[in-house]
Amino acid sequence: MRLLQFQPGSALWLFVHEWRMFFYEMGESSKSKSASDAHATGKTQKRKIARGISLKVGLFFAALWLAAHYLAWRVLADVPVFDVATMAPVRWITTFVLILIATFMLSSALNRSVKALSERGDLDLLLSSPLPTKTIFSVRLAAIVVGISALYACFFSPVINAGAALGHIGWLAAYPVLLSIAMLSASAAMLLTLSLVKLIGIQRTHTVAHLLSALTGAVMFLMSQSMSHINPQLREKWMSTAFIFLDQHRLLAPDSWLWLPARAVYGDVVSTAGLFGLGVICCWLTTRFTHHFFVRGVQQAGGTSQSPTTTTALRRQVSTDHQRRFTSNIWLVVLKKEWRLLFRDIELLAQIGLQLLYMFPLFFVIFKQGVMLSGVVSGLTYLSISLAGSLIWVIVSAEDAPDLLHSAPVMAAQIGYAKLVAAIAPVYVLMSPVLVWLWLHDVKMGATLTLCSLGGVTGTVLVYRWLGKSTTRDRFKRRGQGNVIPTLLETVNALSWTAVSAGLLVSDHFTKFGIAGVAGVIILAWALRNRR
């Protein structure tokens, strides 16, 4: 018997269901025997689905949460009580952090809006029930708001609670501020999603929304990097012009509306109430005037969006299929198959491509400014190994049809090598201009980047070769759940080779730590390898 019982069909009853589904999606994991193990033991393969967060994982995060509280209390013990209205640097930093949080919340809200519209698969059942469509839409939007705000509130709660315990009582207002930002972000994300559905259809919206969510999460980083590559004189001119404009309109004054979120975080009652009221109004307007578009979007998602096949289109398709020819080269077959599957999965491609966004500013540092800093080489080493690890996981471990490959009249080792090439080749195709440029201008840095990236990629291959488990591509975001050791070793391997690259260019001390880390990863992965 549950602690709280609500009337079936009510808004609270439906919200509790949405909240339960939120935790199921966070901790969803699956445990199953491999086909080879089932065949070896002669038993039928069983699949056990574990939904929600397990007790061990919950206790681990609870201990980590309490440890974060202690650390925050020790750091904030000497911070005096201050008034945000009299300290301009505090206002600037707090506002920047809140803008950064808003961009990440908008990114998460876009993903959840697409799932709420087309991926959950339960809206047809809800819309056929006696529940009002406005209630369904309101609860789904409220679930997005509460889910996003809960994650960020849990993340910042050690600092907020420790500050309140040390005398900064006003810091508790950060909780309603986070909820207000979540309401604004969820409303904007839902409006954007429904507008895209109306303009370009549900299928294209699914693709565009995932790309936008990836770009939104990295927009602040890209803006900061783009500003650093502008001519210094031009940048100073723009900044001086902007400051003059803001000062003329008193937008930099302590009582300006620009600092309303910062004042709200530090306990200003009027600012907190105003920001919270703005979020509530935006959510109410969204549910009041757009729930009909929500219903139409659900109907479009459940229906067929493709036009009927005409005779001309059918002849064109037959002609195209007739021109395709099979090839006997197993390498070309595997490469084309893996790359085609990768480019068809836009959501997965957007998640992997997000790592490339952090590579491009480092490319600009080398090519545009001609600066070959050791930190840039080390950063490219880590990012190349990380990107290769993601592609190896997707192409090698996340094979959707392993039985089909095992039954193919080709040696399994040959297919495995071809899949590894398909995973590693894109990384070095992207890095080839940088490698060529470095080899021509500074042989030491070019050799360091080549050696360390190849070593790191090799270590990642060995980790997944010895410890990898078969899974599906839709678990890319949660690939660490139930498979913690390979993910942890992959990260340590990348960091160790980054330290080796820094040591070869800066100090030998980094090299010693890096080599020790690499050796530890290889030894541990070999000791824990799967017995096939």
Q: Count the strands?
A: 2
- Helix content class: over 70%
Q: What is Rg?
A: 27 Å
Q: Any idea what the shape is?
A: globular
The structural class is mainly alpha
As for the number of domains, it is 2
Low-confidence stretches: 28-49, 304-311, 317-322
Succession of helices and strands = HEHEHHHHHHHHHHHHHHHHHHHH
Note the total helix count: 22
Question: Which strand order spans the largest sheet, edge to edge or round the barrel?
Answer: 1-2
Query: Please, what is the average pLDDT?
Result: 76
Largest sheet: 2 strands, antiparallel
Distance between the termini: 45 Å
Fraction in beta strands:
under 5%
Any overview of this molecule?
The chain is mostly helical and about 525 residues long. Helices cover about 75% and strands about 0% of the residues. About 5% of the residues have low confidence.
